[in-house]
Model the fold of this input.
Amino acid sequence: MSANDAVVSIRRLSKAFGGGRVTALQDISLEVARGEFVSLIGPSGCGKSTLLRIVGDIIEPTSGEVTVNGKTARRARLDRDYGIVFQSPVLYDWRTVAKNISLPLEMLGWDRARRTARIKEMVELVELESFEGHHPWQLSGGMQQRVSIARALSFEPALLLMDEPFGALDEMTRERLNLELLRIWSETGSTVVFVTHSISEAVFLSTRVVVLSARPGRIAGIVPVDLAQPRTAATREDPRFFELVTDVRERLHAGGADEVLEEATLE
Amino acid sequence: MSVMAQPIPQGTIVSRVGRRAQDWIPAVVVFGLGIAAWQWLIPDVFHVQRFLLPRFSAVMSTFWHERGTLWSAGWFTFKEAVAGFALGCSVALAIAVVLSRWKRVGGAFMPYAIAANAIPIIAFAPITNAWFGLLSPWSKIVIAAVLCFFPVLVNALRGLTSVDPESLELMRSYAASERAVYRRVRIPTSLPFVFTALKVASVLAMIGAVVGDYFGGSTRSLGVQVQSSVSLSQFETAWAAILVASILGIAFYTAIAVVERFALAWHPSTRGASE
Done:
């Protein structure tokens, strides 16, 4: 990975809350290359969502720096380099599916004809052709999240940031959307940073899995995922898939996930 | 965007109207029984005196014969109510935007706005008469405006600030200006709250204008009509005037509800999402 090929470059980043009393992230350094699909995984409260938000310039780090395409995170945000998908779809009820997808395009000042053409492409990409005129509350949770993904990709951002996007969905929907996301990723060639607490999801989707330790969040290990592309339902039954899942799990435990789990049980 | 919004299937127009009619039957029966009780039961069986409650037919007859005077008085007071509503609500909405934009200012004023919401503002009516002149419509407009002001302020502020944090993070990721956040997120989010308050305010404005008249006002106003009829023992006229006030109040409320239905056409409650 050459330095100028990095979309995201994080150097010695730390984040403390409450005037320095709680250290959420400590000394994180990471590079994400163009076209990579990188997952951040770690126990609850390890700061993985915080790290994602710092990359997206939604919150600021206490120290260290983040560059995106060689720019500061702030500059990248002002240049609209980020597409964000949250755990909840964050769709606007007063807008139809088409209008929700159109939101970032309106902010970018695209004219109507260009917006209409792009909305059509995006609706086809996430396979919601006959639902353009529906309102979000008329759709299922999985469909809503597909709209959210379409909205995030509509303006072709340099980087797609996803914060547990399938965390609230049932297992069946989640596996289907995993495959769909991989298809979209290979079709669009986007760079993705994906936060999850599911080990199998992280391994299945990613080119690399970054394991964070319990608070303060540190990089406990990076697991390159050498499973063949494109991945299919059969990938989940590949012996190599299980080896990688085991590898990630062991690193999670070495990083103190057990202690956090015990703490959570005691509460 | 060629595909139009698909309405939730609700059957044909005929079956919908049929179902509506059935739903309405109990209410219509209660209405009929109420009128019958007013007409016969109360005066003939309970011997309630005319000055307490005149017979329904007598009120209706006065309502018809004095329609010119009554409706012109009603219109006079209704204009005061609408002017007060417009003034109170627009000032409240403007202040809500300012207070939601600058949170510290909002935090400083909000407790007082909530407290003021619990004050019986109508008690100030004689004071506004002193401030703006007994015969001036402004004394009634101001009391109606103040009555409308607080519920609209409190609700609009709640609506403007009840945006979920991820919504704001999303707008931040688009490098959206504060103005764009208001236009595309905060204001649409606040609309259901605002319309609830506007409906309450329409009722309050009418109360404010009529009660304002009670403390003195133009002889052309509805409140003064009610008062002078009572003092001249013309109870039928007083009740007919109250009927005019009720009709105008309901019409005002309905008008706001109709605007709400159009403005919130997207809202799940409007579109029958529960079905």
Remarks:
- The longest strand of chain A covers residues 6-17.
- DSSP finds nine helices and ten strands in chain A.
- Chain A touches chain B at residues 53, 56-58, 77-80, 82-84, 86, 88, 90, 92-96, 98-99, 103-104, 106-108, 116, 119, 130-135, 137-138 (CB under 8 Å).
